[in-house]
Write a structure and sequence with these properties.
Length: about 130
C-alpha cells in the first residue's frame, strides 16, 4: 500500500536520534508525531520543540498514540524499551504500527552517508 505521508514517532533524541530526526523533519512526506527521550534537554528534544513537535520523557506516551503512528523508531539501544514497545503493541492489538530497530536506522543512515555509520549509546535504565 503506497502512502503519501508517513506518521513517525522517534524514541531516543541523543547522538543517534538527532541526525535521524533532522533528516525526518526535512522530508516533506513525513509528519513527526512526537519525540521521546529521558533527557528533556537532549539535542533532538530541543530540535523537536523548536520545530513544533511534541516531546515527552515517557516513551510509552508515543506507543499510546496507537495506530495514528505508522512507524515508531527506537534508537535508544535499550532492550527493555524494545520489549516494552513490542508488549504494548501486542496487548493493545495494534497491528498497524511498525517498530523500527536501531539496526535498521544504522543501515539507513549508512546508505545516506555512503559509509558505515556507527551508532553511539550511553547505557541508561528505563
Amino acid at each position: 500500500m503506497a502512502k503519501d505521508i508517513f506518521r513517525i514517532a522517534v524514541i531516543g533524541a541523543g547522538e543517534t536520534g538527532t541526525p535521524l530526526l533532522t533528516q525526518l523533519l526535512d522530508a516533506p512526506f513525513v509528519e513527526i508525531l512526537g519525540v521521546a527521550d529521558l533527557d528533556a534537554e537532549a539535542p533532538g528534544m530541543r530540535l523537536a520543540r523548536a520545530r513544533g513537535v511534541a516531546t515527552t520523557t515517557d516513551f510509552m506516551d508515543l506507543a499510546r498514540l496507537g495506530e495514528a503512528v505508522d512507524v515508531l523508531i527506537d534508537v535508544t539501544g535499550v532492550p527493555k524499551v524494545r520489549e516494552a514497545l513490542r508488549q504494548h503493541m501486542q496487548d493493545s492489538g495494534n497491528t498497524h504500527t511498525l517498530i523500527v530497530h536501531e539496526m535498521v536506522v544504522q543501515l539507513m543512515l549508512s546508505l545516506l552517508s555512503g559509509r558505515l555509520v556507527q551508532l553511539k549509546h550511553e547505557v541508561e535504565e528505563y
